[in-house]
Automatic annotation (TrEMBL):
This is AraC family transcriptional regulator. Gene3D superfamilies: Homeodomain-like, Regulatory factor, effector binding domain. Pfam families: GyrI-like, HTH_18. Transmembrane segments: none annotated. InterPro entries: AraC_E-bd, GyrI-like, Homeodomain-like_sf, HTH_AraC, HTH_AraC-typ_CS, Reg_factor_effector_dom_sf, SmbC-like. PROSITE patterns: HTH_ARAC_FAMILY_1, HTH_ARAC_FAMILY_2. Residues 10-108 form the HTH araC/xylS-type domain. Keywords: DNA-binding, Transcription, Transcription regulation.
Length: 277
């Protein structure tokens, strides 16, 4: 029976991500879930921690934030692609969520030029510390495609963990990123959304992933997830060449220190972990 509800949640989350400009009313999402509107609202909130309306708004605005800093698409067109009827309603919603109007957000330094063309000071914007990281055993939902779209995998992972009461056995929420954007086509980028797992048996429908422990460089980034690319450039283009350190043969990963469902984008805290030899 739990699997039935997991499938309903996955269908609805996929539908929201695949149709940001479509009909995402509670009635439509209840139809996708094949459940009555009244009961679906309660099930969705219990398993995701948000109402349907809150999830729709957050996913739409995150999609818009990514488009603002990675494309030159007009604000009017971005508003339309994420389901807002005009620039003004979109601007009100975006400003309420991100603390800046869309135009100001686009020009606030998030859309930085390639590292080689930047003012060198911009590559030393973030403090980096060294830390010995423990080995971690994760359970995950795999994601294939652009890294900014991994949110759908995290949402599915979170709903499944809630439906199966896995949270008491889970530690930090972590994203693992195996490929270098630009070196691999966006559609083929491999990543994993999950959390450290403190039990023995991998739950059905999730994949294990082991991270070796050891010396690591830690960059703590504060702000919307769409700004993480600048933090990576700072880590690899600013700190690493001056550090005397050599990266280990293992992927970078991110440890998320607070919850995007209950934290304003400007207050999100993310640790980028670079394993070192």
């Amino acid at each position: 029976m739990a699997t039935d509800y997991e499938d309903r949640i996955r269908r609805v989350l996929d539908y929201i991500h695949n149709n940001p400009a479509g009909d995402l009313s509670l009635d439509r999402l209840a139809d996708v879930a094949a459940m009555s509107r009244f009961h679906w609202h309660r099930v969705f909130r219990a398993l995701t921690g948000e109402t349907c309306g809150q999830s729709v708004r957050r996913i739409r605005l995150h999609r818009a934030a990514v488009a603002l800093v990675t494309s030159q698409t007009s604000i009017e067109d971005i508003a339309a692609t994420v389901g807002y009827p005009n620039r003004y309603s979109f601007s009100r919603a975006f400003t309420a969520a991100y603390g800046q109007a869309p135009g100001a957000f686009r020009t606030a330094g998030l859309n930085l030029p390639p590292a080689a063309l930047r003012d060198p000071k911009e590559l030393f914007m973030y403090d980096v510390t060294l830390r010995s990281e423990p080995a971690r055993h994760l359970i995950t939902t795999p994601h294939r495609g652009p890294y900014p779209e991994i949110g759908r995998a995290f949402e599915q992972f979170s709903a499944l963990a809630t439906a199966r009461n896995l949270w008491p056995d889970l530690g930090p929420v972590i994203g693992v990123y195996l490929d270098m954007p630009g070196a691999v086509p966006d559609a083929e980028l491999r990543s994993y959304a999950g959390a450290e797992y403190r039990a023995d048996t991998t739950p059905e429908g999730l994949e294990p992933f082991d991270l070796p422990g050891g010396k690591s460089a830690i960059l703590t980034f504060k702000g919307p997830y769409v700004g993480l690319s600048a933090a990576y450039d700072s880590l690899f283009g600013g700190w690493l060449p001056q550090s005397g350190e050599t990266p280990a043969d293992g992927p970078c990963y991110e440890i998320y220190l607070n919850d995007p469902r209950s934290t304003a984008p400007e207050d999100l805290l993310t640790e980028i972990v670079l394993p070192l030899k």
